[in-house]
Write a structure and sequence with these properties.
By secondary structure, the chain is an alpha/beta fold. Helices cover about 25% and strands about 30% of the residues. The chain is built from four helices and eleven strands.
Length: about 210
């Protein structure tokens, strides 16, 4: 069983981390099922394990929280859907690279429901959309594992203020070469509710079985 939770009000980042930590501990103890939590944060920046200080371009603009997830600096804020993915890789296969691939595949299929063609790129984390002579990022991925249980997860830009990303070098990608986009920026004025529905519908297409013990 997977517990699906969709939060309608913005969740403070420290509160979200505390909730994830508690749930992962309960999963490890055998007291909780897997969980996927879909939510939104107030405008803020998180610094992953590989964040470089010089990539924080405007340190006073938004609150900055240090995170133990993988990756570098990431902006979160209104109009961006966050997915905290608390799954048991003991049941889904102890293959981290494949797990990330399937997580990306889940997002690719979900975005395709709204006629957005998102793609992986070698050497660049996240999902990208080709736009004329450049590529813009539409989704970011950053995970952590504890005893083969995953937490943290992904963010997808639905309708955020794209100017807010100028406070950082997003995930270390050169802003002179790579931009940031969203579904609304690409002409797909999707509601959060519709996006959540598509996520849930596509999940079982990517992870149809979880009995690999």
């Amino acid at each position: 069983m997977i517990e699906w939770v969709s939060s309608t009000e913005p969740i403070a980042y420290p509160d979200a981390v505390q909730e994830m930590e508690a749930h992962i501990a309960a999963m490890i103890a055998g007291r909780a099922d897997e969980k996927i939590w879909l939510l939104e944060h107030p405008a803020l920046i998180t610094a992953g394990a590989r964040a470089k200080p010089h990539d924080l371009l405007q340190p006073e603009r938004f609150p900055v929280f240090h995170s133990r997830r993988g990756g570098q600096f990431t902006y979160h804020g209104p109009g961006q859907r966050i997915g905290y993915v608390m799954l048991d890789l003991n049941r889904r296969g102890r293959d981290v690279r494949n797990f990330v691939f399937l997580l990306e595949e889940w997002l690719i299929r979900t975005l395709a429901c709204f006629d957005i063609c998102a793609e992986r790129r070698e050497g660049r984390i996240g999902l990208w959309v080709c736009r004329n002579d450049r590529e813009d990022k539409i989704a970011a991925v950053g995970l952590r594992l504890r005893k083969w249980r995953s937490f943290h997860g992904f963010s997808v830009n639905i309708s955020p203020n794209l100017q807010h990303f100028s406070a950082i070098v997003p995930c270390g990608n050169d802003p002179a070469r790579y931009g940031v986009t969203s579904l609304w920026d690409l002409g797909a004025e999707v509601s959060v509710t519709d996006f959540d529905i598509a996520l849930k519908q596509n999940f079982t297409q990517v992870w149809p079985c979880c009995d690999k013990i």
